[in-house]
Amino acid sequence: MAAKYRNDKYAISDYQIYLFNTGTNYQSYKMFGAHKINLGGKCGYRFSVWAPNARAVSVIGEFNSWNESGYELEKIDDTGIWCGFFENAAEGQMYKYRIVGCDGRIYDKADPYAFLAELRPGTASVIKEHSSYRWRDRHFMNARSKHDSVKKPMNIYEIHPGSWRTHDDGSFLTYSELADSLVDYLVDMHYTHVELMPVMEYPFDGSWGYQVTGYFAPTSRYGTPDQLRYFVDKCHQNGIFVIMDWVPAHFPRDAHGLRMFDGAAVYEYADPKMGEHKDWGTMVFDYGRDGVVSFLLSSAFYWATEFHMDGLRVDAVSSMLYRDYSRRDGEWIANKYGGTENLEAIEFFKRLNSIMRDELPGFITIAEESTAWPRVTHDIMDGGLGFSFKWNMGWMNDSLRYISMDPYFRKFNHGLLTFLMMYAYSERFILPLSHDEVVHGKKSLIDKCYGDYDDKLNAYRTFLGYYMTMPGKKLMFMGGEFGQFLEWRYDEQLEWNLLSMDKHIMLKRYVSDLNLFYVQNKALWENDDSWDGFRWINEADSENSVISYMRMGRSKNDFVLVVANFTPVDRNVYKLGVPLPGEYEVVFTSDSKKYGGKKGRHVTYKAKRMQFSDMKYTIVVSVPGNTVFAIKRKKGVIKVKPSIEA
After folding, report:
1. How far apart are CA 135 and CA 308, in angstroms?
2. Are 216 and 26 in contact (CB under 8 A)?
3. Segment 483-533, tens digit of pLDDT
4. Long-range contacts of 551-554 (CB under 8 A, 24+ apart)
5. Contact in structure between 530 and 599 (CB atoms under 8 Å)
6. How far apart are alpha carbons 271 and 331 in whole angstroms?
7. Which long-range contacts (CB under 8 A, 24 or more apart) does 605-613 make?
């Protein structure tokens, strides 16, 4: 009798409820929230919410003058789900759930499954029907299903939508305005992907979006859900993949949010030793609770299907994997085996990655994981977590520390550059130069470089050439491409005024051409996950602070030699081993005059039959100070197309 009641009165099936309560309903947004339906010939909105500990639940909103009388929801047996159907609710109206908690107190809560939220500082949910947006990216989406990201170039431009550009009065661009200016910029700069810092609804601007209250609602700061769809669609029509930051690690304590949702811990662990991140002032999701797992899985699937996102960068993975993360002795609870691992979070990640991989071919997940947790990107069947890629935080810390030191001392710290190759293929890595590295007194990327203004520019170009040619996919935070000197400020746009200065115009041109060189040369990414794609020529020249290496594609004749000099001292006679005879040409150099360097032309070298560095042939090159350059054998050489103008 109960099953019939559910199906007939509220159009929610037993099967949906069963999946939700077993942690396997990754489309639970179809049963929860506010949905326009027709019941018994009457058209209205069904409101459904999960509040297992509540004594009573009503819906309040603009349609009933925020008065719960007559708008009580009915509890569906012992499922923890409350439902109601009301004819006078309409799209665009604000609402909340008024919950009488298990403690007898009244809680007015935003809908966890709302598809739209009131613009902050308001905290209400907004009734929003499913979109009728007409997508124009079918060709892209069909191609994505066959796209192997591991074997393709990936050069990600990370942006904070509120501070890339603003209007003259400091107000935000809408998603569609952002699309109309950013997409052309991405194409001109030869980026392959764009990554959005969180666009799920959040209350506090200063959290940058990492303290989420609306896991199904695009933030209203930048416009409507359909405007966000337009942004993604336009990216896709121009061949740009869209990744969004997603935050399943924690949520804020705001009264209208998930914390103590019905007077008790519903979404968070009940024990504060598990349920709180004191450092961040946030709550930790209970990954052992099936309804929470269904909620988070559904959020991920929602963004991928309803907004055509191509990937999720999962924030703060380490905080989820370890029960003792940022906790002192006595402040955490061991797992059932006495260990520090959060077994429920591990299973959550496996389930998440299995669903996204199996249901959405070509979709990627990226772990921001800052420890040495093993096999993050390995197959689940082989004991891995199943992520597509992992941020290489170790490389980022090592390399940025290296470029910040006086060049004299770099010879004593040479391993900071080369240590990457000790573990480069233990995971599928992305080399990130992210927003976290240009805030809180850490300086901007270019300002980290040692020396005066010109020294910084030269060293920065060298570093970027090294970064773009080492194994691993790439990510750069906005502003790094033209040498933003100020630290990033979330409430101001980038220093676009710097592009009135020739040296920053030339730097932007350099990054654009370097990006294009990366995309055009398969040797730099085709074997990115294997030693088949990399070989040291000379990694041990610490005395000169010079490294040289070879990147290789699938064809044995497809290779690029790279030389980088990290001191301002010229090395005029420098031997390099090469694998084949013939002439070699410098095809890309940071020292070109058009980038602010000293050289105006490319140079050719003829290989001699002389073994060096385990190779049969040798060329002798000149390596200017603070320079990186790439060399290819002249047969089949690929040169960079003309630069765009800034």
Report:
1. 9
2. no
3. 999 999 999 999 999 999 999 999 999 999 999 999 999 999 999 999 999
4. 551/469, 551/471, 551/521, 551/523, 551/524, 552/523, 552/527, 553/521, 553/522, 553/523, 553/526, 553/527, 554/522, 554/526, 554/527
5. no
6. 11
7. 605/631, 606/582, 607/578, 607/580, 607/581, 607/582, 607/583, 609/581, 611/577, 612/575, 612/576, 612/577, 613/536, 613/537, 613/538, 613/576, 613/577
Rounded Cα distance between 297 and 299, Å, is: 5
Q: Which residue's entry shows tokens 């050439």?
A: 465
What six digits make up the tokens of 41? 């010939």
Do 432 and 396 form a contact (C-beta atoms < 8 A)? yes
Which amino acid, 503? K
Quick: pLDDT tens for 405-431. Answer: 999 999 999 999 999 999 999 999 999
How do 241-246 and 214-218 pair as beta strands? Answer: unpaired
The residues that bridge with 85 in the sheet, in sequence order, are: 46
Neighbour tally for 35: CB within 10 Å: 22
Question: In the annotation, is 180 catalytic?
Answer: no
Give the mean pLDDT of 138-159: 96
Q: Where are the beta strands (DSSP E) in 191-299?
A: 193-196, 200-201, 214-218, 241-246, 250-251, 276-277, 282-284
254: tokens are 């705001």
The Cα diameter of the chain in Å comes to: 91
Nearest C-alpha neighbor of 463 from the set 559, 565, 550:
565
Residue 87: the pLDDT is: 94
| Mean pLDDT of the chain, nearest integer | 94
What are 599-644's pLDDT values in tens digits?
766 789 999 999 888 899 999 999 999 999 999 999 744 555 544 4
How many whole angstroms separate alpha carbon 173 and alpha carbon 161? 8
Polymer length of the chain:
646
- How far is residue 528 from each of residues 40, 193, 505, 569, 629, measured CA to CA in Å? 58, 17, 31, 31, 20
550 φ/ψ angles, rounded to the nearest 5 degrees: -125, 130
Distance spanning both ends of the chain, measured CA to CA: 69
pLDDT at 57 over 80: yes
2 has a pLDDT exceeding 80: no
The values of phi and psi at residue 368, to 5°, are -90, 90
* Nearest by Cα to 566 from 594, 589, 542: 542
Note whether 416 and 545 are within 8 A (CB): no
Walk me through the domains of the chain, giving residue ranges and CATH numbers.
2-126 (2.60.40.10), 531-633 (2.60.40.1180)
Q: Strand pairing partners for 261?
A: none
Instruction: Please report the pLDDT score of residue 6 as a whole number.
Output: 46
- The torsion region of residue 209 among left (phi > 0), alpha (psi -120 to 50) and beta comes to left
Distance CA 323, CA 45 (A): 41
Side-chain-side CA neighbours of 319 within 13 Å: the count stands at: 23
Q: Give the per-residue pLDDT at 353.
A: 98
**pLDDT confidence band for 5 (50 / 70 / 90):** very low
Distance CA 317, CA 405 (A): 30
d(CA 291, CA 50) in angstroms, rounded, equals: 8
DSSP 65-82: TT--TT-BPEE-TTSSEE
Instruction: Report yes or no: 251 and 282 within 8 Å, Cβ to Cβ.
Output: yes
From 262, 268, 310, 368, active-site residue: 368
Do the beta carbons of residue 25 and residue 294 sit within 8 Å? yes
Which of 306, 310, 315, 529 is flagged as catalytic? 315
Query: Which positions ≥6 away from 67 have C-beta within 8 Å?
Result: 60
**315 included as an active-site residue:** yes
